[in-house]
Every structure is written in C-alpha cells, then in structure tokens.
Amino acid sequence: MTESEKKKIIEEGEPAQKAEEEKGEPTIDKKYHLLESGKAKEIIEKAMNLAREEIPKGAVATYIPELGKEDPHQLGICLYPLKGEKICLGDYDARFTMQSVSKVIMLIVALEVCGLKNVFRKVGMEPSGEAFDSLVELDVSNSKPYNPLINSGALAVCGLLLPEVSFQDMLRYTRNICSDPGIELNEAVFDSEMKTCSRNRSIAYLLESKGIITTDVEDTLRFYTKMCSMNVTAESLASLAKKLANDGVCNLDGKRYMSSRTARIAKTLMLTCGMYDGSGAFAIKVGIPTKSGVGGGLLSVSDKRAGIGVYGPALDAQGNSIAGCKLLREISNELRLNLFYDPEWDKEEGDDENVMKSIKESSVM
Ligand code: GLN
Predict the structure, then answer these.
(1) Is the pLDDT score of 16 beyond 60?
(2) In the chain, what are the domain boundaries?
(3) Which member of 104, 276, 279, 332 is catalytic?
(4) CATH architecture of structural domain 33-339
(5) How far apart are CA 56 and CA 77, in angstroms?
C-alpha cells in the first residue's frame, strides 16, 4: 500500500467499513464498542468514582524521595479515540514523571535506530515474573535481561542507545510523539533518583560484568534516569498511545513515528510485560496493552480504537497505579475495549471473580 493510499484510509476509513455505513448497517465498532456511542464520557465519569475508592489501599512511591511528595488523591484520564471526541477528566493535565513508561520510548527508538537484531541480542522478550527492579534472575540465569520493559532490560537498551542519540534527541522525539512541547526534564526528581539509585547502579554494573553494557556505566545510568524523569501528563500519554493504536502513524496529519513492526513489538511487549509481575492478571482483567510507571502514569493502547493516558500516583504492591488499574478495568468492561472482546461475554453471568471461583470449584483448574 502506498503512503498516499494509507493516508486516504486514515482520513476516510477502511473501504469495507464505508460500504457498510452507506448501507445503513452498523459497523462492528458501532455494534460492540461503545466509544462513539455518546455515552463514553458518562461511563468514564462513573468509572472514575469507583476507581477513587481504591486510592486509600495504595501509596505513593517513596524510594525516590521526591515522588513521595505527590498528593496520592490525584486521578486523571485522557481517552483519545481515533474517531470522535477526546475525553479528558480529573487531573488529566497534571504533570508527573514518566518513569517506566519511558521504557516504551527507549524501546521504540532502539528498534528504529539500532535495529531489531541488535536490540534482542541484548534483551529477551519474555515476562520475568519478578519485581521491576529485580536483579536475582539476571545474576542466576547468567544471561541477558528478560525483557526491555523492566529496569535491567531498559538499562541494557540505554547502553545501545547512548552511542547513537543524546538525551536532547530523546526529549525532542518524546515531545513530538506525545504532541506535547511542554515536556521537560524534572531536575528535582532526576537529582533525587540519582542520589538513591543504588539498586539500578548494581544492575548496571552487573550488566557490564556480563558484557551486556559496554558503554560507560555511570553515563548509561544517568541517561536512563533522565528518561524516567521527563514530565508528562495523562493527555500527552494518550497522544502517544493513539499513535501506537494507529500502527505508529498520527491519524491527524498522516505522519509516521515508527515502523509498523516497531509499533507491533512495542504493543505486544506492553501486553505481556508492561505491568511487571502483575502483567498476566492485568491482561486477563483488562486486556489492553499497557505500560505503567512508579510516577503513577499508565500508557494504554486500545488497538485501532483509542489511546488512553491515566495518572494516579497511589501505587499497588507491584508499583502500578492502584486507581488507574481499576479505572482501566472498568472502562475496558463498559466500553468493550478488551482486545479479545466477544459479544458472547455479555451473556455470561457473574463477574470475572465469580467465574474464576466457579472454575476453581469445579476443579477444571
Ligand atoms: N525510575 C524508576 C526506577 O528505575 C522507574 C521504575 C518504575 O517506574 N517502575 O526505579
């Protein structure tokens, strides 16, 4: 398909869908997905109220002292559909640091600049089942980090990026892909993390001892920590997620930000590894590829439909936004955004919890 054909489709919709619309038949999207139903805003508002109830069960991250100063009660969302109105609610424009959400950007740029083979020579593509800052499996298994979305994997990716791009290049790319020229380095968070990052420093030196990082370790660590300290909003994350949802292309001006393959790899790893040791449960309960950060951000890609950015700094035990996860779960259910959604589900009785319980009782599992 040529670029202009692609652009035409982005602007006018897929031909098959157009034909269905002309016949007056509701499209698959209109039948099952409620994004364009006009009810989305109301549904999200309700979900926000339910999600707020989770906040007292979580806590802001304190291992980076500067993050400990955040007000845990904040909650914001921006849902940016490929077709239809952008919905922004709560603290959608509050600035917070990207933290591990930036691992998606590091991965995208590494795949584009260094190439797929070089990236996966340094990191794997499997979930680790361990905490985001774990180094145990890295030491014991004596091989490369499990995936690029945990600290060890992202540090390995930074070792690849460092000779190729500067932090200023990364900042410029981030501003563009997030359609947010206001993104800056949060110096206070950066300084705070640099003073307390013994664990990441240990991981980085361990990676050097294994020959995975060959760049200067301290420079690599600084580059990684700067990437984590970029100040974004839920709205900027939604813009980034929307481009991922649209195969790496901005639906408004047709500009491509990454290859189709890079977009696919990023989304797949977000689904399998984006929520650390909570990735499997999140995939089952929510079914939307998502990447979290300890700043409270969630980058969520409803493929071919919408980009979603969430901010809620109170975290659960895995370091994922506690209210943000609840919010995405509600929205996924109510707007039928689960990647595997099937209309048959609506006929099922009971919520997931009850279904899981009855499966266990009937000893199928
Ligand atoms: N900068 C944080 C760290 O390296 C990012 C971790 C996270 O967001 N889970 O610990």
Answers:
(1) no
(2) 1-32, 33-339
(3) 276
(4) 3-Layer(aba) Sandwich (3.40)
(5) 19
